[in-house]
Amino acid sequence: MIVEEINKLKDLHINTFLCSVKSYPKHRHDFHEIIFVIEGSVNIQSACFNYHLTKGDIFIFDTDELHSIFETEEENLLLIFQLDPYPYLTLFPKLDYYDFVCDSYSDTNKSYIELRNLQSSLANIMLLVQQKPDAQDLIEASTVKLIEILINDFQFIYIDQTGYRSNSTFKNNSVQMERIFIILKYIYRNYKQKIDIDRLSNMLHLEKSYISRLFRIGTGLSMTDYLCFLRVKHSESLLISSAISIDEIAFTFGFSSKRYYVKHFKKWYKMKPALYRENYTKQMNEIPNEVQYYEMDYDKALESLKAFQLEEKKGEVPEVSPY
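Above: the chain sequence. Below: its structure as tokens.
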């Protein structure tokens, strides 16, 4: 499957639907995708990380991120929301570079207000699509509100060996957030090449040692570790969807040698890339390489979704962080 084509709703820049998933094999696309567990539980994989999501949990996949979803022993009901960021760049110029994270899966408290607002916003859009499919202006306004919620409360990402975590260290410090964003944007644009920290120092007018400390506090990783993580993460798609040699993949993604690539791949994926490719091929021979859903009672599903709606605060417009 790997590259998935998203069919957007008529005259909109989103797609959203309810489903009960049996298996959703590894795939990627250039949309932000949000998984919201309405009932039951699912297991998901995002890059090299595995997560178990239960009722009320939300997980956000960023653009071009390889991911998969599989059932557990429980029946599941999911809301899947897919957002094309590019038409919204006029309103949110950095949207295509944001890394969003919701780590509700690590918190037994599913009632904190930021999560409740996100749940309600997703539920409202889904119900609008079902009940007023021709009200594109209203759906669009609700989508913009959802983006505002993501930017305000879910863009502070921290990475460790267990996965993506939220990090609010600089949430109220727009200067430091902007600096980290500039560094990340530079890395994303140049991750296949050698990163020039002297250039970053000139761009930010900061000492190199300060930039390094700031980046580690903001992301949880050194710039070198983050760069290598990004390279191996993006290499996964080519590794499992082609017969290209490990050496060639290593050089394609900016590693100076196969040995260096294997070292960093194993650090995150817990096995060498050749074995990872072999295991994936075996898995695809055992399960269909296509999305499999269970049948469900759609009216009952909509009723379950309504439980996550919050009463709208009429006339109140949320403030939006500029970063």
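The chain has two domains: 2-165+291-306, 171-286.
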